[in-house]
Specification:
Blueprint lengths: L1 H12 L1 H22 L4 E9 L5 E12 L3 E3 L1 H11 L2 H16 L7 E6 L1 H5 L3 H12 L6 E6 H5 L2 H14 L2 E7 L5 H7 L4 E4 L1 H4 L6 H17 L2 E5 L4 H7 L6 E3 L7 E2 L11 H11 L4
Parallel strand pairs: 2-4, 4-5, 5-6, 6-7, 7-8, 8-9
Antiparallel strand pairs: 1-2, 1-9, 1-10, 2-3
Helix pairs in contact: 2-3, 4-6, 6-8
The chain binds ligand C2E and magnesium ion (MG) (3 copies).
One magnesium ion binds next to β6.
Protein name: Bifunctional diguanylate cyclase/phosphodiesterase
Organism: Maricaulis virginensis
Length: about 290
Amino acid sequence: HAKGQGRNQVRGFDPQLGRMLQERRLLEADLAMAIEDELLELHFQPQVRLGDGAIVGYEALVRWNDEKRGYVSPAEFVQIAEETGQILKMGEWVMRAACREAVNWPESRRVSVNVSPAQFRRGNLVLSVQQALRASGLEPGRLVVEITEGVLIDDEDRALQVMRALKDLGVRLAIDDFGTGYSSLAYLRTFPFDKIKIDRSFITGIEDDREAQIIVQATIDLARALGISVVVEGVETFGELAALGCQPDLVLQGFLVSRPVSRGHVPGFDSFSAEQRQAIADQVNGGS
Ligand code: C2E
Ligand code: MG
Ligand code: MG
Ligand code: MG
């Protein structure tokens, strides 16, 4: 009875909540249509190796440019898609579209694709990766699957099984947002990651944050010792870059190098500004 009463209260006395629920239902319906009609887009953000400034890959980031709302943040709609189950269909589209783009790039560049917990739990991720590789002809070693710690929490055995199957295909695995979960280190021990993406929250303002500097450097050293490569997410300023120092094997992904760009911009996008390149070269050569 308490439950029924609560529901009446929502309907009767909180018009604002009612409006929010209605907006949410509309958003879900519009998102379902956008996924169905393949109206989503992918943008690509370059990842640059510090040592030589080479672009080693791009992260594919989904975009929804809704005619009423404009660009809706993926942080918002990916979460909704996750809750409604639409993520399975969306994730399959993202995987196919990302592989299809990447075959047109120089062979030395990989594509990183985010997968969400539901794709691990309920979807047949291995099959959809296989199909995307086959349909595009992309060499499996050029695909990186980015996994957040959220994927690993609830069913470690299943996660490990899926990850091993992906590795058997020749696909690489990255742990995304590294350091934000509660057992990052344990995950490095249990799961076969090839790559760590250090979360942006450790990088923002790192030049004035001694603790962050120590944690980031320890993470880099740990990864090196384990034979895992490191991507540093969210580098926005030269100050942050300077705080990372001259480490030629580090890979940068951040607005300092480039924002995510639309697919049309990727082929001609072989580098960033001369000023940026010089600053990175200075870092690596121990200059500044
Ligand atoms: P993520 O996978 O950690 O992706 C990195 C996010 O950081 C992207 O946001 C990117 O635009 C942003 N970023 C990169 N460099 C900088 C920087 O220097 N400064 C700042 N402030 N931000 C930077 P975006 O595209 O809004 O995506 C947010 C999140 O949504 C992603 O975080 C990922 O968790 C999720 N997402 C995006 N695309 C997909 C997708 O295709 N599938 C799934 N499952 N999730 C996705
Ligand atoms: Mg990611
Ligand atoms: Mg991330
Ligand atoms: Mg993130």
